[in-house]
Amino acid sequence: MIGGCDERGKARATIGTTVTLGRDNPPVTTGSQPTSECPVTAPGQQPATQGARSLDPHLRRYAARTAGMTASEIRALFAVASRPEVVSLAGGMPYLAALPLDSLSAEIGNLIATDGLVALQYGSAHGVPELREQICEVMALEGISAHPDDVVVTVGSQMALDMVTRIFCDPGDVVLAEGPSYVGALGSFAAYQAQVVHVAMDDDGLIPAALREALAAVAARGQRVKFLYTIPNFHNPAGVTLAVSRRAEVLEICRQHGVLVVEDNPYGLLGFDGQTYPALRSSDPDNVVYLGSFSKTFAAGLRVGWALAPHAVREKLVLAAESATLCPPTLNQLVVSRYLSTHDWKGQIKTYREAYRERRDAMLSALEQHMPAGCTWTRPDGGFYVWLTVPEGIDTKAMLPRAVTQRVAYASGTGFYADRLGSRQMRLSFCYPTPERIKEGVRRLANVLEGEIQLHATFGSTPRREVSGPQAPSPDTA
Ligand SMILES: Cc1ncc(COP(=O)(O)O)c(C=O)c1O
């Protein structure tokens, strides 16, 4: 399972106060005295948002489902972590500096000049027809043959996740998801009071035998699984990819048990060697809802994603989208559509891939060079993330403020589980900082870890904090 660690990074693992920022920086007061500048929570203290909630005069009015909506701890630390002197390996922000901004700006100006009255008008909840056709061409790169009618354009794939959960899950319904899983998906599941049962992964992604076991365990409790949520390619946060040899088996198991598959694939075109994998949707169109996004392959700020769904599900998704937003932004859809028809978008993806590969290499070699014995990590061949496991007794969530003090930030593992696991793990993102910054960040992180390991050897474990389970997604933890 992802999570085992014996040897210095070599093991084939299973995945299963006052902050002072160095000599030149003023101390930042945290926790009980949050400043508007830096509302940070220290270990053992209640997050500021929770403290504030108890003073909230509307507390008794909220729907029960809001209990599952909690702020990300990283969000609170973000004000500090985004200071220039801190190397943030926490966020999942794409490296947009690789975009051709001049020609994009000319294109957008031209769009408003020529089609402004359409671009600035309401549109259909289904999405702009021309863009839906182009989305089918994008999906063909991963073996999907689809009709544009079955594509629903969404405000990022995050909205598609929300809608899928809304149309399928009643409170208490079970959703299966890899452990760990994408924090934004866990946030949506919590918001609709679905119960998440995690399925273990290894370096080849979701383990089919673990999927069978999870299904049997849920059935034994008399519960019904609504869907399997899976990120087959370049997983967030684990960095692993579902082996091609496992794909048919995963689909077959889900079919046998009458379980829908929700395939979330924002990173599929970001394989560092240009490799792509056959989408699950390509071999089981009737039982897979596929989610895609332009956030990682073009521009996250445009918030354009999509769902490709079996016909009947597509109808429900359009109705759900209508009630949420009336329609996705027409301007943004037309910007994406023009970009796809006038720019070398495949060349742009190649540019992104090369930038991310260089960053991945920098991170892996720095981990190899600096990490203390007993740490292991995954070796992604695409995407944005490495999943690091630290030795027994170290709590990555408790360690985070100390890491920020040493001017490095990461996303602690507990946010990626619905069931309080992950305290020995962390996600390291290599997508945004330069290779030099990544190396420096890993060096600082290794120093912090060395200190924690020595403390642990001397005094035993740091007391483990209660964790609140899934948290609301935010750009800094996405
Ligand atoms: C696995 C996964 N799914 C969905 C999303 C949401 O992406 P979007 O920007 O399309 O809403 C992200 C963002 O990081 C992600 O990593």
From TrEMBL:
Residues 27-52 have a biased composition (Polar residues). One of its GO terms (biological process) is alpha-amino acid metabolic process. The keyword Transferase applies. Signal peptide: none annotated. It comes from the Bacteria. Residues 19-54, 459-478 are annotated as: Disordered. Residues 118-445 form the Aminotransferase class I/classII large domain. The keyword Transferase applies. GO terms for molecular function: pyridoxal phosphate binding; transaminase activity. Gene3D superfamilies: Aspartate Aminotransferase, domain 1, Type I PLP-dependent aspartate aminotransferase-like (Major domain). InterPro entries: Aminotransferase_I/II_large (IPR004839), Class-I_PLP-dep_aminotransf (IPR050859), PyrdxlP-dep_Trfase (IPR015424), PyrdxlP-dep_Trfase_major (IPR015421), PyrdxlP-dep_Trfase_small (IPR015422). Keywords: Aminotransferase, Pyridoxal phosphate, Transferase. Its cofactor is pyridoxal 5'-phosphate. PANTHER family: AMINOTRANSFERASE, KYNURENINE_ALPHA-AMINOADIPATE AMINOTRANSFERASE, MITOCHONDRIAL. Belongs to the class-I pyridoxal-phosphate-dependent aminotransferase family. Homodimer. This is PLP-dependent aminotransferase family protein. It comes from Solihabitans fulvus.
